[in-house]
Amino acid sequence: MSPDDTLAPFLLKLERRAWLGTAEKEAVLGLPYQLRSLERGSSIIREGESAERCHILLSGFAFSSRCSPNGARAVLALHMDGEALDISGCTAEDASCDVQALTSIRVADVSRESLWSLAHEYPQIGVALWRLTARSASVLAEWLVNVGRRDARGRLSHLICEIAQRQKAQGICIGADYVMPLTQEQLGDSTGLTSVHVNRVMQGLRKDLLIRCEKGRVSILDWERLKREGDFRPGYLQLAA
Amino acid sequence: MSPDDTLAPFLLKLERRAWLGTAEKEAVLGLPYQLRSLERGSSIIREGESAERCHILLSGFAFSSRCSPNGARAVLALHMDGEALDISGCTAEDASCDVQALTSIRVADVSRESLWSLAHEYPQIGVALWRLTARSASVLAEWLVNVGRRDARGRLSHLICEIAQRQKAQGICIGADYVMPLTQEQLGDSTGLTSVHVNRVMQGLRKDLLIRCEKGRVSILDWERLKREGDFRPGYLQLAA
DNA sequence: CGGTCTCTTGAGCAGAGTCAATGAACGTGG
DNA sequence: CCACGTTCATTGACTCTGCTCAAGAGACCG
Question: Which bases along strand D come within 7 Å of a protein CB atom?
Answer without folding.
Answer: 7-13, 17-22, 27-28
